[in-house]
Specification:
By secondary structure, this protein is mainly α. Helices cover 76% and strands 0% of the residues. The protein is built from 9 helices and no strands.
C-alpha cells in the first residue's frame, strides 16, 4: 500500500470515529473535520499542529467578535425599531377608525328595535345611549366600567335603576323583557335623550 492510500484510509477512519464520538458527546463534528484538514494542509507533524491551533483560535476570536457586534446592534436597533413602528401604526389606526365610524344614535336604534319587538337589543341600545350621554362616545365600547358603575357615577342613579335592572336581566340573566319592562326603561332613559351636557 502506498503512502497516499494509507493516509486516506487513516483519515477516513479518524473522521468516522470523530463523527461517532462527536455526535454522542454533542461536539461540533464539522469543526473537528475542518481542523484535521487544516492540520494536514499545513504539513502535519508539530509545525502543522501549531499553525492549525493558531488559525483555529483566530477564527474563534473573529466569530466571538461578530456575535458580540450583532448582539450590540440588536440591542440598539430593537428599541428604535419598536418606537418608530408603534407610532406609525397607532396613527394609521386612529385615522382609519375616525373616518370609518360615524356617531351612533342609540335612542333611535332602541326605538326601531322596540318597534320590531326586539326588547333585549332595544334595552341594550338605551343603556348605550345613556352611557354615551354620561361619559362620551368612547364610554359604551371602550370604557373599563360596567354599565352599573357608569350609572352609579351620576346623581340620578336611582332614577336609572329600572333601565339598569332590565339591562342586567337581559344581558347577564338572559331573560327576555316584555313591553312594560321596556316602557319603564324608556322612562328612566328619557332625561338623557337630549344632547350631552
Amino acid at each position: 500500500m502506498d503512502m497516499l492510500t494509507a493516509l486516506a484510509l487513516s483519515i477516513g477512519v479518524l473522521i468516522a470515529l470523530w463523527v461517532k464520538v462527536g455526535t454522542m458527546t454533542s461536539l461540533l463534528v464539522p469543526a473537528g473535520i475542518i481542523a484535521w484538514a487544516c492540520f494536514f494542509a499545513a504539513g502535519g507533524k508539530t509545525q502543522g499542529l501549531q499553525k492549525t491551533i493558531a488559525a483555529t483560535l483566530s477564527g474563534l476570536v473573529w466569530v466571538w467578535l461578530a456575535i458580540g457586534l450583532a448582539g450590540v446592534i440588536a440591542i440598539i436597533a430593537w428599541p428604535i425599531r419598536g418606537g418608530l413602528n408603534r407610532g406609525g401604526r397607532e396613527a394609521k389606526l386612529r385615522a382609519a377608525g375616525t373616518m370609518a365610524r360615524g356617531r351612533v344614535d342609540f335612542f333611535g336604534e332602541a326605538d326601531r328595535l322596540a318597534a320590531n319587538h326586539d326588547y333585549v337589543a332595544a334595552i341594550k341600545a338605551l343603556a348605550g345611549g345613556v352611557a354615551v350621554h354620561l361619559k362620551g362616545d368612547h364610554a359604551w365600547e371602550h370604557s373599563p366600567f360596567t354599565v352599573r358603575e357608569l350609572f352609579q357615577q351620576t346623581d340620578r342613579a336611582e332614577a336609572l335603576r329600572p333601565l339598569l335592572l332590565s339591562f342586567e336581566e337581559a344581558s347577564y340573566g338572559h331573560r327576555t323583557p316584555d313591553a312594560d319592562t321596556y316602557i319603564r326603561a324608556v322612562e328612566a332613559a328619557a332625561p338623557y335623550r337630549g344632547p350631552a351636557a
